[in-house]
Design goal:
The chain has about 240 residues and is of the alpha/beta class. It is about 35% helix and about 15% strand.
Length: about 240
């Protein structure tokens, strides 16, 4: 059994900035993995997330097996559905979409996952997932049939994050969604951070080192970058060690 969550807490205590690269199995051809992961290894990335909103069964596991041939970083599942669960990964973000009110994504999908998790040797990290609007419909919104929280409703965002912590979540993931036109504003991150005693992950719309830096300065414990690398792998040049 791994100790990824403990290591995250230790890194935060030591003021280390954590950076996760999100790889969508539906968008990463197997033949491109080796070159992509070599760039990841040469960057400031500390974790690899694997998952997507809609992925065919078995595709996630095949991708993880290929990534492990080259990766030097822990691989954490960020699944959109229980069919993406694979014990080839090191850990799993056990997500509950607490920004929505669809019971399937609050508890239903999680119950469906247990038959797989019961036999899997995965570190499981309960995570409250909060989706914020970004001006366009995201795949998470479409698949989960839930509405994101409006960015100007900061009190609701803060209260939702705190409720997740009080329900026992070990992480809060503040997400603008895949392909977001702009990242979550530092003012929102800062306000949410004041409410929490657990790590805060921020993702979506991170397309520049300035956006990443602003998220850290506002209190993000970990920043997640996905679409920026899918669209332009040269972004790695800005994130070299």
């Amino acid at each position: 059994m791994t100790n990824i969550y403990r290591d995250i807490l230790t890194s935060i205590f030591n003021s280390k900035r954590l950076l996760a690269v999100l790889i969508d199995p539906d968008k990463m051809p197997i033949e491109n993995v080796s070159g992509f992961i070599l760039k990841v290894n040469d960057s400031r990335a500390t974790h690899i997330f694997v998952g997507g909103s809609e992925v065919d069964e078995g595709k996630t596991e095949r991708l993880i097996v290929e990534i492990k041939k080259y990766a030097q970083l822990p691989i954490i599942l960020f699944p959109g559905d229980h069919i993406q669960i694979s014990d080839k990964a090191d850990a799993l973000l056990f997500l509950s979409l607490i920004s929505g009110r669809n019971p399937e994504y609050l508890i239903g999908k999680q119950v469906e996952a247990i038959s797989k998790l019961r036999e899997a040797d995965l570190e499981i990290v309960p995570t409250g997932y909060i989706l914020l609007e970004n001006g366009r419909q995201t795949s998470v919104e479409r698949v989960s049939k839930t509405k994101p929280i409006e960015r100007n409703n900061i009190d609701l965002i803060m209260d939702t994050a705190k409720a997740g912590e009080l329900l026992g979540m070990k992480l809060i993931y503040l997400e603008a969604g895949s392909g977001a036109t702009h990242p979550i504003e530092p003012s929102i991150i800062e306000r949410v951070r004041t409410q929490l005693n657990i790590p805060l992950i921020v993702g979506g719309g991170m397309r520049s080192t300035q956006a990443i830096e602003e998220a850290y300065q506002a209190g993000a414990s970990m920043v997640v970058v996905g679409t920026a690398f899918e669209e332009d792998e040269s972004f790695f040049n800005d994130l070299k060690k």
